[in-house]
Amino acid sequence: MQRWKQYGSLAGLFTAFLAAGYWGFTATGGALPWAKRSAKALQRGTKDGGGALVDVSRGIVVAGPIRKGGLVLEFGGLVALLVVIGIGLYVYVDRYGGFEDGERPAR
Amino acid sequence: MAHIHLGEGSFPLWALVLWTLLGVGLIGVVVYRVRKGGIETHQIALAGIGAAASFAIFQLNIPVWGGIHMNLTGLVGILAGPLLGALIALVVNIFSAALGHGAVGLIGANTLVNASEAIVAYYAFNTLLGLDWDGFPASTSAATLGLSAGAFLMGAIIVVSGVNGSALPRGDLAIAVGGLVGLNLGVAVLEGLLTGFVVQFLASVRPDLVGLADRETPDETTGVTA
Predict the structure, then answer these.
(1) How far apart are CA B13 and CA B21, in angstroms?
(2) At what angle do helices B107-130 and B13-37 cross, to 10 degrees?
(3) pLDDT tens-place string over residues B9-49
(4) Residues 145-184 of B with CB under 8 A from A
(5) Taking CA atoms, what residue in A is nearest to B37?
(6) N or C: which end of chain A has fewer CB within 10 A?
């Protein structure tokens, strides 16, 4: 393909996406609100997230909306289901040698 | 680029289950195809480098636009292919979530978003090469298109799911998320250009790594080996 057509297509793509980017930038309030929000989030993260990385007495932290919405049981059930599926897949692969394991050497 | 930064519990439980199952399904298909078909040895090294580069640049947030960062998933898709690209998206998201960048509950959704970027970039790049495009415009366009696909998917996931505790009706949420998608399209141009330069450099020293060996065989060695 002729080079001017390639770069013309690329320029068209860039023009459309940069226009969308500018619209998005103005539609979401420009730089200042985001910068303020970002600074606040960082400060809050520092305040709330301080402390030991490993703290056994803290227990398992479940997200607020799940805990306050009374969904801890459902959440626990989901985690248990995923654990069972994971262990089941591990046992299956270990016992039956995987999914036709012998046909996949790296080339 | 596209990455859902909402906190834990932001999505309703049904949405969390839905996106997690879709993410698991995608990764399941990818793993099955990798095991059936095998992978090229050089792709493994490229995948490792791509995962490291993607994870590193993931953490460099630009705070001006509400926490937008580059992903390099377009580059990863072009270099490592769609299968390893999807696996890299999963690994990078798990590591990022472990650092508090992106919710653990949204790993499935974010894997879908980032894997779509790698997959679309890979196929767009090969399609453009098939149309006899040069390496730079092909890789730049492909990465930009891949990243835009991820941005749209990210917006769709948020709008379909809704956000817990948000007072915005679904229509207003769609408009607000539309602005965010627009922002991501703007940044996709920058990341697309960066990807184009990287692929162009690789094509000049090791064209075989980017599938250009039989198109642009260098006449003389450049003195650089990789």
Answers:
(1) 12
(2) 50
(3) 888 889 999 999 999 999 999 999 998 888 887 788 888 88
(4) 145, 148, 164-165, 175-176, 178-184
(5) A104
(6) C
Distance in angstroms (rounded) separating the CA atoms of residues A75 and B8: 12
- What is the CB neighbour count within 10 angstroms for residue B170? 10
Interface predicted TM-score (ipTM) over 0.90: no
For residue B68, what are the β-bridge partners? B62
CA-CA distance, B177 to B152, in Å (whole number)?
10
Residue A71, pLDDT > 90, answer: no
Tokens 């520092």 locate to A46
pLDDT digits (tens, 9 = 90+) for B105-114: 899 999 999 9
Each residue's pLDDT tens digit, B161-193: 988 877 777 778 888 788 888 888 888 999 999
Number of neighbouring beta carbons within 10 Å of residue B15: 20
Residue B215: count of CB within 10 angstroms of its CB: 13
Contacts with A25 from chain B: Cβ below 8 Å:
65, 179, 182-183, 186
A66: contact with B, CB 8 A cutoff? yes
pLDDT (0 to 100) of residue B21: 94
Structure-token pair, residue B143: 């990465």
B188/B144 Cα distance (integer angstroms):
5
Question: Quick one: CA torsion of A80, A81, A83, A84, rounded to 10 degrees?
Answer: 120
3-state secondary structure at position B68? strand
Interface check for A87 against chain B (CB to CB < 8 A): the answer is no
Q: Tell me, rounded to whole angstroms, the distance of Cα B103 from its chain centroid.
A: 18
What are B136's two structure tokens?
A: 């730079």
Q: Does A23 touch chain B (CB under 8 A)?
A: yes
Give, in order, the Cα–Cα distances in Å from B30 to each of B153, B161, B178.
19, 25, 30
Interface mutation target, options A22, A23, A28, A103, chain B, most CBs of B under 10 Å: A28
